[in-house]
Amino acid sequence: MADESNTSSIDRRRFLTVLGASGAGAAALSGCSTDRVQKLIPYLVQSEDQVPGVATFYSSTCTECSAGCGVHVRTREGRAVKLEGNPEHPINRGKLCSRGQAALQGLYNPGRLKGPMAKSATGSFQEITWDDAIQRLSSKLSAAGGKVAVVSGAGRGTFSDLLGEWTTALGGKVVRYEPFDYEPMRAANRATFGRDEVPAHDFAQAKYIVSFGADFLETWLAPLENARGFAQSHGFHDGGMSKAVFFGSRAPLTALNADEWHLLAPGSETALALAMASAIATEKGDPLAASLSAFTPEMASKETGLPAEAIRRIAGEFAAAKPSLAVAGGVDGQHRGATELCAAVNLLNYLAGNIGHTVLFGADMQVADGAEALEALGAALDGGQVAVLLVHEANPLYTVPASVGFTPRFKKAGFKVSTSMYLDETAAQCDLLLPNHHALERWDDLRPRAGVVGLMQPVMEPVFKTMSTGDVLLKAAQKVGGALAKFNAPTFDAHLKSKWQELAKQQGQSDADAFWRTALQRGGSYSERAAAPEVKLASGAQAAYNRPAFDGNGEFYLAPHVSPLLYDGRGTNKPWLLENPDPVTKLTWHSWVEVHPETAKRLDVRNGEILKITSPQGSIEAPVCVYPGVHPQVLSMPLGFGHTEYGSYAKGRGVNPLDLLVTKGRQPFVPYVSAKVAIEKTGRFKKLASTEGTPRQLGRGIAEAMALPLAAKGLTLEQAAKAEGHPAAEVNTERELEALKGWSDDQYERTRLGDYAGEHPQWGMSIDLSRCTGCTACVTACYSENNIATVGEDEILRGREMTWMRIERYWEGGNQPGDPYEARFVPMLCQHCANAPCEPVCPVYAAYHTTDGLNGQIYNRCVGTRYCANNCPYKVRYFNWYKYNERAFPEPLNLQLNPDVTVRARGIMEKCTFCVQRIRGAQNQARLEGRPLKDGEFTTACAQACPSDAIVFGDVNDPTSRVRALKQNPRGYHVLEDLNVRPAVTYLAKVLHRTEA
Amino acid sequence: MRPSRLLRVTVRMMRKLALIGAGTATIGIVAIVLTSGRSGAQAPRPVADSTKAAVLAVGDTAKLLGPRQPVFFRHDVHAGQYKIQCQYCHYSVAVSSEPGIPSMQTCMGCHTLISGSDSGNKAEIKKLRDVSAQKKPIEWTRVHFLARHVHFPHSRHIKALGPNGCWTCHGEINHMPQVYRVNNINNMGWCVTCHLQRNVTRDCTACHY
User: Fold this and answer.
1) pTM, whole model, 2 decimals?
2) B182 touches chain A (CB under 8 A)
3) Contact A701, A810 (CB under 8 A)
């Protein structure tokens, strides 16, 4: 069939050639693109720190949760295009989670309020001017006669100080309300240690970690700091690793990363913690042993259903590892006994000698005032004591359960003002909207903990006609006068700078200006962590365990869990966070209710079957997701859905499980796990928008693992399999292998065709599965860096998500009832095979191999045959079935696009490029400076974001590179190695810290 | 058939198609020359004294190639006659992918003092001063459009070709009273020819990503 291609009439390629030439003739010299900007508009005055085409980075502080991580904002031509971690910041050390990165979509959110608005008599909002808005606020404040109240988020800094003083001067009070506050932990610390605070935790030092329901890798305290520490201790290193155990009613990502996880009925984990404490106290002969004597492993076994033997073993292991760490608290285990649980865990840590080693008091973590303060405000509202109510960075009408009854009380306030950037549930009920600048548009600072003051600076001009609430307060103060006249700073940033001059003095810095400039560059002022204070057991500290009370008589416990992406619902208006699948269930865009497989079997319900879940408070409907990580008596649902306002992405999406809570009256905290619900089949089904292919590996060897003792010996996977007595099956005969090798060598040589002058790097990646937790920060980073379009629920149902990088979650075990499940996570991206199956099938050479080892995908060559995707064994090529690029970035979301990366149109195949734009950018810069490229000078977006440093990227040809060293690691393997495609991505097998039998 | 042979056949086929392509492209270029010949006269080439830019009467400007700009900024005067370095105004060309459009401040740096020698110049400089006084930018009409799927690092090319390397692609700007497109910068063959001659990268991902 040598020459018959010549005789074919006209093939597609020739057709295109002719078309191209005639097109050029007709349009003369007008080039390929017709819709570019027709005007070049110069600056009036050239900005010193903006060079067109070169990114400018600003340091700032993340406000997406109360952890207070430092960020670097990458800006191009005066707009923010990406958020990255600040390497100097002591909390996150250069890493950033999905929520933090998605703050960019908050900045450019189409649902943002475009300017101040006032509610008219008809109940609709009318746009007003800022002068008018501040006049309205001032006149109401003047007339309020001290009856002023403020509800604000947990953020603690110069602004919140000003807000506090300003409100006090008016005669009012600020209630700092954060939905996921840590009241039970603080209450327990008060009782056990006499300290009303939340301590910091050092996971990096801990050799044995036990979590009682605390999801420390996703949402608990400072997740990035925890994840970094966890990777340091639990990632396989120097022949060892720590061990992690999780107890809880529902397994979040933290549990799936633990070496063993046990599901318990909510509330019973306290008995377990006390039994462990009791065992340790008896062993040590501690005086506490007497008061703990009632809590025997047998008693705990009866409460939890765990074998007493296992409890003894875990207690022994916990005590033997020094230091160890036990953690509790957080929403997923916040039942009515949460304070007792935290107190029990305090005793456990105290007896194991962890206080001062892995549990560090004196951290002065940023917390809010708690549910009691909100209740007090509610009482004041009832009493007509609030004439003006200001809501700042809080959305209590959504985050407080309906049964608490805050909404009707809120409406009793005389005049309600919101500074929210979006029309959220609370803002919709307000009379005056004074939208604040986004955190990336304003000046402020944050003090997330002792020794850390993070600075925020405007990184760009405001997107809309918003105003910094600091400026609003100062302007209103001047109009109202009287007690407020003392707030006479001309602007909030002048006020902030004067506060920083005071801070410079406090820190003994003589040159306040230099201190300020350094802080701006470094993202804040960081001092060494002060030595943890001596912590003693408070007198009268004692253990208690009562089965917590639950409302309702339903068969199942309802355990709402915090979505690691949507958090308290503030992420639901950001398409990245909706499309990025939940790390454990792999579901996107909608609510679901998790049911244990055995329960599902018993009730005969299956995936997607819509259940009606009823509590005495009401009922909601959600589709079933059969999930082995939920206790058979528990139904778990993600929080963050079910908004009735909050922009087009969030409004009406899913249901809010808080609507089922029955909790009422004065209480120290919101008991999230406190309802018992009944279920009813509706007979209707909904297809789950899941990105999961198959939950099992089916013998394909995708997510490999080996036992710790074998890894410690430095065995390879093959040797480890032999040592365990199951050698790998022979896949090919010797002759077949020889033939394959000859063919592949031939292919490989051909990739060198068209080589040009000089030596070339070979880009490669290694992913350490013993460090990867499956948190999906890399996925969001990839969306942000590479302008990946979100496609929405309907397209995901058709399997058309565009996620260049995805985290695959595979289940092992669980084959018989009672057999434990084990989860394995594999980040899957284009493997940049040296012998890539996608390349030879492309009829137009759009997929080809570069001389530096990349599997190139050239969009302008691609004609969309999709042969490459059909031939890719990893399913990492994604096709633009529709104009996703036009749908996914409604204005002003299009401003987030990275100008270094082409936005792909309909009919184009796309995939991971190993961030080729970063490679070329770094190469260009090195060449300009006349020097070779250094290892670690740049990295891909996924490796940069990875909180546990599992991903390492670099040049395999560079003998000093980290990635080259990692590729020699005996744990290294390639996914689907038998195909002989020679991937450039090496995975390092997960290490299992199994219990020795 | 072995895959390697298939590859070779395909490459041979490619070459043939490339020849056909080149042929049609030549026809295209001829067509372009013809159309451009019809649409307007070539810009007046400077005479032997290349340092002195031609004085243009109002009637001459209508014949100039390229789009009309809001201010009749003359590269032949600035870069030709006065030999101002390109990078004085296009400040980022050696450090960035983008060449940089001079800010109004850069223009006014000189034109606060220099108000022009003849009435034509004076009128244009007055336009500049007026908009600058109103703190408005001049909205220049764009001449060169690079397709959006191409990434062209100006800095690398200036480094390789020297400070006057601009001419290689943009033509002798220092002789143009009004800038027009001399070369089709979106013709990839034209890029590749130069890269072949210098034996530098022809990798697709050097520009396309």
Assistant:
1) 0.88
2) no
3) no
